[in-house]
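Worked example

This section walks through a single chain of length 143. The input is the sequence exactly as stored; nothing has been trimmed or padded.
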Amino acid sequence: MAKDSILGSYAIVTVSTANGPVPIGEVLKFTAKQAGELKKKQPLGEVDVHAQYVPQGWELDWEGEKIDRALADLIFSIEQEYRDGHNQPRFTFHQVINHLDGTVEEWKYPDAVIYDFQSGADKANEAIKEQAKGFAPRREKVS
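Given that input, the structure is written out below as tokens.
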């Protein structure tokens, strides 16, 4: 028997630093994609190929509608830190998914960098969209 799917309204994405939460606007889309490399070898005398997957972090991608200047200010501060010769700030992304059976799936992506910010509108009567990407070296299970 088929079951109901978990809708996006059951998911929450937040971003924080060591100093607390960072406003990133209203998130409409969030994707976390595992990055890695598949290494294959076929030793002499072997018929089958041996494969090993080497995880290399997580690529993060999100999109939202502009509700204030918070994300634009954050991106400006990241660039300014770089231009002033400081280390690029690191962030922690939190992803929470509430399942229909009442269980909660929660992940965090620590030590993430944010890059590739975009902002723009397609039409005069549509909201301004903001997009950015991130990269975290690992994903950790919270619950």
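What to look for: The chain has a mean pLDDT of 89.
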